[in-house]
């Protein structure tokens, strides 16, 4: 799940492999907690954390990316 969430987040940010961005997901009881990091070119680094249904990790990844982009 961590790798899947990470890939979804990075694809959504669409910065490729040269943009400082990462995400990590862990189990939190029966939920999934995803924490992301994004440092846009010349901008302030951002972190966000979301908790949600592990069956909807794609949705969580996209929401995380939107929050990270600001």
Key descriptive features of the protein:
3 strands, three-stranded antiparallel beta sheet, 70 residues, 33% strand
**Strand neighbour order, sheet with most strands:** 1-2-3
Work out the strand percent.
Answer: 25-35%
Mean model confidence by pLDDT: 79
Q: Structural class, from helix and strand content? A: alpha+beta
User: Whole-Å distance between the termini?
Assistant: 25 Å
The rough form would be described as elongated
The level of helicity is 25-40%
- SS field, number of helical segments: 2
SSE order, as H and E? HEEEH
The overall strand count is: 3
- What are the segments in which pLDDT stays under 50 over at least 5 consecutive residues? none
Main β-sheet description: 3 strands, antiparallel
Radius of gyration, whole Å:
11 Å
């Amino acid at each position: 799940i961590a790798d899947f969430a990470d890939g979804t987040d990075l694809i959504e940010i669409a910065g490729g492999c040269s943009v400082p961005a990462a995400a990590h997901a862990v189990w939190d009881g029966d939920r999934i907690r995803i924490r992301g990091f994004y440092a846009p070119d010349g901008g302030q680094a951002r972190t966000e954390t979301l908790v949600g249904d592990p069956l909807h990790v794609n949705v969580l990844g996209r929401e995380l990316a939107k929050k990270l982009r600001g």
